[in-house]
UniProtKB/TrEMBL annotation:
Domain of life: Eukaryota
Transmembrane spans: 1284-1303
Domain spans labelled C-terminal of Roc COR-B: 895-1026
Protein name in the entry: Protein TORNADO 1
Gene3D superfamilies reported in the protein's UniProt record: P-loop containing nucleotide triphosphate hydrolases, Ribonuclease Inhibitor
Keyword S-adenosyl-L-methionine in annotation: no
Assigned keywords, A-Z: Membrane, Repeat, Transmembrane, Transmembrane helix
Length: 1385
């Protein structure tokens, strides 16, 4: 008893911080001892005294209150709780807050039935116990029920262990309900004799997604008979079931449906039935957490595998599946692989998450249907990484070889195991494996252990090749640039109007170039009807002819040329090997003998020539111009000696000369009878010859393109003639057939190889062999099918089928799919279902978006509407008006017209593409948020940032397009939208067309006058700028442009009116004019050596009117707000007024600049004219110039060269500072310029005429009282500013002469020249020029002053103030008679 007293004293004193106390009631004697520093073991004998001590121990522990907070472990071994008071004390103490016990253990304790409720109540109240252990306490179902009831309410216990107790099925159910309610339990360990206990526990754990670690053991108490039933590890999310009955397995399968805690399920070795598989299939459809499932050796048969395969269809999480060692056959394999295979290129793979699959072995028999399923899997699967087929004895060597051949195009499989498969043997299998590894570098490992091939030692080469495929390619061994060669294919386009005989001619050419029967062409006339009589829809037809090593494809466009141009196939770029035959019938209708006139044939040919020029891209090389030959059909019905035929040929020759800069026009015109062998043979010879010539001229293509064409044809023949190939299929073909772009290693330069493959496809596209949509990821292999059955349907959607709400061009995607499907269903019936295996309706809509045949209203919305211009209907009779009607609106219009309308026009497809392209550009713009977009057949109405815009097409096959705008913003802001958005979009769609921009009369824009009435109501923008440049500075600001009136059937629509030039131009345009004037004056000042201090006196203020229109948007609806708004308006008016003042001040400064320059220039000229006192008598005038008369207009000649003819010499009126051209002056004709003339006059022309021209250009309108002098050189100079009017290659217009001189003395060489130092040189030049003039006039028998007055209208006078002599006109003699006196002639 002493030991017990010692232990009791320790407890009573509370000095020792014990952490663990163990009570034993298993010995006959009582004792106690201290096991460790913080643990005590107390043995209590089974007698009354010892039992009393046990009660005292419990009382002392309960009475210490907070002194035993350190006590965390309390265990009872072999205790018989016979006295109700002992357990009551214990439960009371543990229920209080004074207890700090965290682990409570009962081992081989004996509880009465009435003890369980006490323990249950204690656990419900306790908040400190974390672990409870019951070992061999005979809890049974009653104890389990009370324990479960307590733990259902307890949220602190984290660990429950029940060892060697059989709680029974009822107790297990009670514990499972506890698990459903308890979130805190972290560990549940049960060792029960009956393994049925595991089913409800594991089911509740995974069904409620508990993170409870679960270990359930079964069997007898001896270690040899114990076995594990279930194990669940939350750390690894692994559920391993070792033994379970049929009903339990189904219950677990059902619980997995909504589970998110189990990632790995291992049921290896458990016999499973089809009922379980059915439940598990439902769980697979719902489960989103399972990653691995091991069902090896589970006796699964075909029916069970069918269920599992069905569950894989909807599963989106499972990555690894083991079903090896089971009992299923080929049917099971087929259903298992079905969800991870594709049966059509358009079919999406049902399951994309399964990465690894293992099957085979045991009683598995793959069979023939299983082999087929495996081959389909390897050919179509896009997600499988690992495939294991183990211990199979049913597959033969031929089956193994087929499996490896199917891996040639598989880029996802990394690991393939055929462990123990007896069919892996023989040289055929070995060779097939090596060939596969040659083209498939993605396979990282092949496991052939246990196979006959590996046992025979023949697998070493396979492993070496795998290592080689995984090794990096040396940098110097990477693919170099693809070699190039001359193309071997050429395209011939047959163009022509309806009933021209294109189809008959195409067939005749085809049979003539492939003739096997010499009598065929002679019999064709009587065997077939004329093609023109056959009724049928015109469709593009392509016939391919093999001429030796050349392939010529004949494209019979049949009126579908707009679709070809739209797709950019006919004109893919410069150098595409192709040429055109324009076919025109000599008769209006082949059935009668009503011949066409030469004018009609010329009009037919002119249309096609314009179409080819307008659609082709401009090139500077004549070698790359489109080649065109003309064929006239039905020549057998006309007389070759008739005058009309010769007139027709002459008209064609005129067209050839007219289009010589745009088209390579073959000089010979072919006149054929399409049904005559002899007639067609000549044309056939021409086609053979010209095709080889064009191929030789064309840029080289990649050498592999010629081989790829054959490979693509073979691919089509193997795939039921499919017209479409996906990009991944093209890559597979390149991997197999083109070694140069083959991936040789997993570390190869993939980006470079992909770019090279893309370049090959683009090259084939440019050659016209395929149509490549790189962004969409497919290639059109059958161009005829594409244009006939797809593109022609998409571009001609039946508007009648569209509802009234969709006539504005917008249609839902679903409705559009219905329309397209309805249009294409007949093609499916005629061409077969295999044709559309690679194509979906959604692909067609994406194609329309790519070709800009439609666009999405809101690209981010899957249910967005589509705008299809093809369904727009033309609105007629409706009054056009602006949607904005504010009094202060500004109306602006620009007219864009083809610069070369004689050779180009806007094609029919242009405006439809513009409608879509402009919308896409607005949509991508960051500063165009909130823009509205409305369309009509030939109208685009856009509202952008408060600016209402109308884009109108000038009719079909027109030459112009109008842009109209209405807004409260300034003209500069409106034109900024024009030049930053609208006009660049138009130019991007017409790369070969140059437009002339003109200003439309604002009144026409305001009242939306129809285009037919405003044809003469626009002025070219550059012309208006030149007019302003030709005016003096003080006239620029007030210049008004006058518009003519508009009438219709003697009814006045718009009367004649004027608009200020400044109101027609933007601020940028006005500044450009001013800066160009300053530019000219600046360099003239340099030439005149004008002192700079005179120029610094003017003010340099540039007009800058910046109206902030957004301030008015913030006015508050109150008296103060209105007052503030009035202030803002007044401020805006002041800003505008200040801008006008600044502009006027800048023009005034320009005028001041001009005045000083003009004065200085006249002083220089006067000095030069009177440079020698000996020549003061001046028998002849000094100021002369040459003009050339062409088409009733004069062109100023400023430079001479030998050989010039038909020139006329004129004299200027030399009145000081008022020089001008004399009206109605006869002049003298100069027949031809020789070398002596050039030598004498060239210095004069290059120096003196430059100064003279600038003086006249700047100062002609400064003469006071003279008004407008007509004509004068200032107007001629303005006219000559157009570079197209410059004479020959050496003539330089006077207006551009300043810029020319800058180029001569520009850069670092520009320096001031002293005018006085060069006077001697100029004097010598003037002397030689005067001498030549005197000799020339003498040769013309003009020797007296009277002769000069008759020919030139000039009289010799002397100034009264200076005494100098000048030759002046009659007008100056009359008006300035007091300043001069006459000198005898």
């Amino acid at each position: 008893m002493g030991d017990l007293l010692w232990a009791l004293q320790i407890i009573q004193s509370g000095d020792t911080e014990l952490e663990s106390i163990s009570f034993y009631q298993t010995q006959s004697t009582s004792n106690s001892y201290q096991e460790t520093e913080k643990s005590v073991s107390i043995n209590i004998a089974r007698n009354d005294i010892s039992t009393q001590f046990f009660s005292r121990f419990l009382n002392e522990l309960a009475m210490q209150r907070g002194n035993w907070k350190s006590l965390t472990n309390l265990s009872f071994h072999g205790v018989e709780w016979q006295q109700q008071l002992q357990l009551q004390i214990l439960c009371t103490w543990l229920s209080s807050s004074n207890s700090g016990v965290k682990q409570l253990e009962f081992q081989k304790n004996t509880f009465g039935v009435e003890d369980y409720p006490k323990l249950s109540e204690m656990l419900k109240r306790n908040t400190t116990i974390k672990a409870i252990i019951f070992s061999e306490c005979n809890l049974q179902s009653t104890g389990a029920r009370h324990l479960a009831s307590a733990l259902a309410e307890n949220d602190t216990v984290e660990e429950l262990q029940i060892w060697e107790d059989s709680v029974g099925s009822e107790g297990a159910e009670e514990l499972s309900r506890m698990i459903e309610m308890n979130y805190a339990l972290k560990l549940l360990l049960i060792l029960d004799k009956d393994p049925v206990t595991a089913t409800p526990l594991i089911s509740a754990t995974i069904a409620r997604n508990r993170t409870t670690e679960l270990h359930i053991w079964g069997g007898e108490s001896t270690d040899s008979k114990r076995f594990k039933v279930v194990e669940f590890m939350p750390e690894t999310s692994t559920l391993r079931i070792y033994k379970i009955n049929s009903s339990g397995s189904r219950r677990v399968a059902c619980a997995l449906g909504w589970n998110i805690t189990v990632a790995t399920l291992d049921m290896t070795g458990i016999p499973l039935q089809s009922k379980w598989a059915k439940e598990f299939a439902g769980a697979l459809e719902q489960n989103k957490s399972l990653k691995k499932v091991k069902l090896s050796r589970t006796c699964l048969k075909d029916k069970a595998i069918v269920y599992i395969g069905a569950g894989l269809f909807k599963n989106k999480s499972l990555e690894n599946l083991w079903v090896d060692g089971n009992w299923f056959g080929g049917v099971g394999v087929e259903h298992l692989l079905c969800p991870i295979s594709r049966f059509s290129p358009l079919q999406s793979q049902a399951n994309n998450t399964l990465k690894s699959l293992t099957f085979g072995g045991g009683k598995t028999r793959i069979g023939r249907c299983g082999i087929t399923a495996i081959l389909r899997l390897l050919e179509t699967n896009q997600s499988m990484v690992q495939l294991v087929i183990c211990e199979d004895r049913s597959m033969k060597p031929n089956d193994i070889a087929r499996i490896f051949r199917s891996l040639e195009r598989n880029a996802t499989i990394r690991f393939l195991s055929l462990t123990g498969c007896t069919g892996v043997e023989g040289d055929v299998v070995l060779q097939t494996i090596m060939e596969t590894l040659q083209v498939n570098p993605w396979i990282e490992e092949i496991d052939l252990s246990g196979t006959p091939l590996q046992i025979a030692g023949k697998a070493d080469g396979i492993y070496e090749k795998l290592i080689q495929n995984g090794a990096p390619i040396p940098e110097n061994d990477l693919l170099t640039d693809l070699p190039q060669t001359m193309p071997t294919c050429c395209r011939l386009f047959l163009c022509g109007q309806e009933l021209a005989g294109k189809t008959t001619l195409c067939n005749s050419i085809y049979h003539n170039m492939n003739a096997t029967d010499s009598q065929y062409m002679d019999r064709i006339r009587s065997l077939i009807e004329p093609v023109e009589k056959i009724a049928g829809a015109p469709d593009i037809k392509i016939r391919t002819i093999h001429d030796g090593d050349m392939t010529i494809s004949i494209w019979n466009l049949a009126g579908q040329h707009e679709n070809c141009a739209l797709q950019d196939l006919m004109f893919p770029g410069h150098g595409s090997p192709s040429f055109f035959l324009i076919i025109s019938s000599l008769f209006r209708k082949p059935a009668n003998r009503d011949p066409k006139s030469p004018t009609e044939i010329e009009e037919d040919l002119l249309y096609w020539l314009k179409f080819i020029v307008s659609s082709s891209r401009r090139t500077l090389s004549r070698m790359l111009l489109p080649h065109v030959s003309v064929v006239l059909t039905h020549s057998d019905k006309v007389c070759h000696l008739s005058g009309d035929l010769h007139s027709t040929v002459a008209a064609i020759q005129r067209l050839r000369e007219d289009f010589r800069d745009y088209i390579d026009f073959y000089p010979t015109v072919f006149s054929v009878d399409a049904r005559s062998s002899t007639s067609v043979s000549k044309l056939t010879h021409h086609i053979r010859k010209i095709s080889r010539t064009i191929v030789q001229r064309a840029p080289q293509v990649y050498r592999f393109c010629n081989d790829l064409i054959n490979h693509l044809n073979d691919w089509r023949s193997r795939n039921y003639g499919k017209p479409i190939m996906r990009w991944n299929e093209f890559c597979d073909l390149c991997q197999l057939k083109v070694p140069a772009v083959r991936i040789r290693s997993r570390h190869d330069n993939m980006e470079k190889l992909n770019n090279q493959r893309h370049a090959l496809a683009s090259s084939l596209h440019n050659m016209g062999q395929i149509i490549f949509f790189g962004d969409l990821g497919f290639l059109i292999l059958d161009c005829e099918w594409f244009f006939r059955n797809v593109l022609s349907q998409l571009t001609n959607l039946d508007a009648i089928r569209i509802t009234q709400n969709e006539k504005n061009g917008f249609i839902s995607r679903k409705e559009l799919e219905k329309v397209i499907r309805l249009r294409l269903q007949n093609q499916v019936l005629t061409t077969g279902p295999k044709v559309f295996d690679n194509l979906e309706i959604n692909d067609l809509i994406n194609m329309m978006l790519k070709l800009e045949l439609c666009h999405e209203q809101d690209p981010g919305d899957p249910n967005t509407l589509l705008l299809v211009p093809g369904i727009l209907q033309e609105t007629r009779g409706r009054t056009q008006k602006w949607q904005l009607s504010t009094p202060g609106c500004v109306y602006v219009g620009r007219h864009l017209e083809c610069d070369d309308s004689k050779h180009m026009f806007l094609t029919n497809s242009f405006f439809a593409k513009l409608q879509v392209h402009l919308y896409n550009k607005i949509l991508r713009s960051t500063n165009q948020q909130g823009a509205t977009y409305n369309l009509e057949k030939y109208l685009i109405y856009v509202v952008i940032n408060g600016i209402h815009l109308r884009v109108e097409l000038g009719g079909q096959l027109g030459h112009h397009i109008d842009i109209l705008a209405c807004s409260t913003k300034t003209i500069s802001e409106i034109l900024r939208v024009f030049h930053q958005l609208i006009i660049p979009t138009i130019l991007s769609l017409c790369p070969s067309i140059t437009f002339i921009e003109s200003i439309i009369r604002p009144e026409c824009v305001k009242h939306l006058i129809p285009p037919r009435f405003r044809r003469a109501q626009h002025v070219p923008l550059q012309h208006l700028k030149q007019i302003l440049l030709s005016l003096p500075a003080d006239s620029m600001y007030d210049y008004q442009h006058t518009w003519s009136s508009v009438e219709n059937d003697c009814k006045l629509i718009l009367k004649s009116a004027s608009d200020y030039g400044r109101d027609l131009l933007s601020d940028e345009d006005i500044r450009e004019v001013l800066h160009r004037r300053y530019y000219d004056l600046h360099h003239l000042a340099i030439e005149l050596a004008l002192p700079q201090d005179k120029l610094h006196e003017r003010e340099n203020n540039v007009a800058a009117v910046d109206v902030n229109s957004h301030e008015l948007d913030t006015i508050e609806p109150s008296i103060l707000g209105i007052a503030k708004g009035v202030e803002i308006v007044l401020q805006r008016l002041k800003t505008i007024e200040q801008g006008i003042k600044d502009l006027k001040q800048e023009i005034q400064g320009l005028r001041y600049y001009e005045y000083h320059l003009l004065t200085e220039l006249h002083n220089k000229v006067d000095y030069l004219v009177n440079y020698n006192i000996e020549l003061q008598e001046r028998k002849v005038p000094n100021m002369f110039y040459f003009v050339q008369v062409q088409d009733y207009s004069k062109r100023l000649i400023t430079r001479l060269f030998s050989g010039m003819a038909a020139l006329r010499l004129h004299m200027l009126c030399e009145f000081r500072r008022e020089m001008h051209v004399v009206d109605d002056q006869i002049g003298c004709g100069l027949i031809q310029v020789d070398n002596q003339t050039v030598k004498c006059l060239l210095p004069y022309m290059s120096k003196f005429m430059k100064l003279l021209t600038f003086a006249l250009k700047i100062g002609a309108h400064f003469v006071a009282g003279m008004g407008e002098m007509i004509p004068d050189l200032s107007r001629e100079v303005a006219h000559l500013l157009d570079p197209s009017l410059v004479y020959g290659a050496t003539a330089v217009t006077a207006g551009a002469l300043g810029a020319v001189m800058i180029g001569k003395v520009g850069g670092n060489r520009l320096r001031r020249r002293n005018f006085d130092n060069s006077t001697g040189d100029i004097a010598q030049d003037m002397k030689a020029a005067r001498q030549w003039l005197a000799d020339f006039l003498k040769g013309q028998r003009i020797t007296t002053g009277t002769d000069i007055a008759e020919r030139f209208g000039l009289w010799r006078v002397r100034y009264t103030d200076s005494g100098q002599i000048a030759w002046i006109c009659r007008r100056h003699i009359t008006m300035r008679g007091n300043e001069v006196i006459g000198v005898p002639l």
